[in-house]
Amino acid sequence: MAAAVAASQISRATVVGKTSSTISKSINAQNAIRRTNNSILEPGQTVVIPRWWTGRYDAVCDPARFLVDGQGKITKADLHANSDLGQELQHKYNDVGLVHVHNTGLTNMADQRTLARILMGEETEYEGGANPRGRAADLGNVYDIGAPLEAALAYHHEVTYKSHSVESLGFLCKHAVQRDQVGWSFVSDSVQAHDYIMTTPLGQKLKEKGLCFVRRMTDATSERDIGALDHDNPSLTVYNHWQQSWMTNDPEEAEAAAHKQGLLVEWVPQVGGGHMMQTRYYKSAFEYVPGLDRNIMATSIADDGEWFDSWPGIKDVPQELRPLEMYFGDDTPFTLEEKQAWTDAYDMFGIPLPWQAGDVAVLCNLRYAHGRPGIHLLPGEQRELGVMLGSFFERQETKEGKW
Ligand SMILES: [Fe+2]
C-alpha cells in the first residue's frame, strides 16, 4: 500500500493546487490518513475508521459554488424555477451537482419539498435499499432516513446493488442540533474520489475484478430471531426473513425466484434451527454517468458488513452473519487495509452539510456519495431530516473507452 499512500499525496496536492495553503491542507490530509510502518491502519486497528472529511470546508469545492443563502426570507413566490432563487439553484446545481440552501426561513417541510423539486422534478417511490423507511405523513414522497440515529452511515450512493438507482437526492432539515458538528451530514465528491482511487492498486483491482454482493436473509422458522433488534420498533429490523422476501415458505420456490433475478443461492445453517438464505450477485464497482460522459466509482463499503459497525444490537454480530457482505468479483475477500483505503478515498473529498432547521440540500446521486457519523443527542435536542428520491433510472454499469 506504500504506492497508494504516495499517490494520495500527489493526488491531494493536485486537487488543492500549489498555493500557500497547500501545506496546511496536506497536513490535514495526512492527519486524516495516518499511517504506521507503511500501513494506513492505526496500530492495533481492527475495524474501519471513517473520518468523513479533512476538516477544511473549502478544500474540495469552493462553497460559493454550492451554497445558497436564503437570507431568512424565502417566500412561496420564490419557490418556482423562474424566480431569482430558482435560477440560482439551477445554475449552481448544473455547475457542481450540489446545492445547499441555508437560512431559508422556511418552517414547513411541504415548502422545503417544493424548493427541492425545482431541481429534482419527478420523485420516485422508495422500493428497496438497505433500510426500511416510513413515509412522512402528508408529504408525498418524503421519507425518514430509516436508520438508528446513533449508527454511523458510511458514504454511499443510493444505488441498489442490482439494477435501479435515482438521479438525485434531496434532504430537508426539520430539526437540527447547534452543538459542534453533531448531526451534520456529509457528501463526498465521487469524481475526485474516483480519480484518486484509480491511482491506487485498489482502484485497479476493483476495475479488473468487479464486486460480489452477498445478502443474507434469516429463516422465519428459527427459534432465535437475530433480525429483531427491537420488537417494539419494527423499523429497527435490519434482516428480512427469506420467506418474507420471496413470499413463500418453500425453499425451492424461493431459490427459483432468486435465480430469476440473477442471484446465486446458498443455504447456511442458522443458530436456533433452520437455514439462512445467502445470495451472491456480481456487478461492477463503477457506473457510467451520462452527464459526465465517463465511468466513476458508484460503490463503497456501505454494502459490506461495516455498514452495521455502530448499529445498536447488530454491531456485535460477527461479520459472516451480518445481512450484507462484499467480496471482489472473484470471491476473494477485502483486507482491512483495502477497506480503509476505500473509505479514505471518500473521506479525502468530504464536504460537510451543517444543518439548520429549514435547510434544503439537493445532490446528484452519482456525482456525490452521502453519509454521516453516528448522532448522540443530549436531552432536549432533536435532529430530523426527510429524504426525497429523484427520477429513477436503470443502471448501465460501465462503458468501454469512458474511463
Ligand atoms: Fe442513503
Automatic annotation (TrEMBL):
Molecular function (Gene Ontology), one example: dioxygenase activity
Superkingdom per UniProt: Eukaryota
SUPFAM superfamilies, per database record: Clavaminate synthase-like
Oxidoreductase listed as a keyword: yes
Keywords: Dioxygenase, Oxidoreductase
Entry annotated with the keyword Methyltransferase: no
Cross-referenced PANTHER family: GAMMA-BUTYROBETAINE HYDROXYLASE-RELATED, TAUD_TFDA-LIKE DOMAIN-CONTAINING PROTEIN
UniProt-recorded name of the protein: Taurine catabolism dioxygenase TauD, TfdA family
Species of provenance: Seminavis robusta
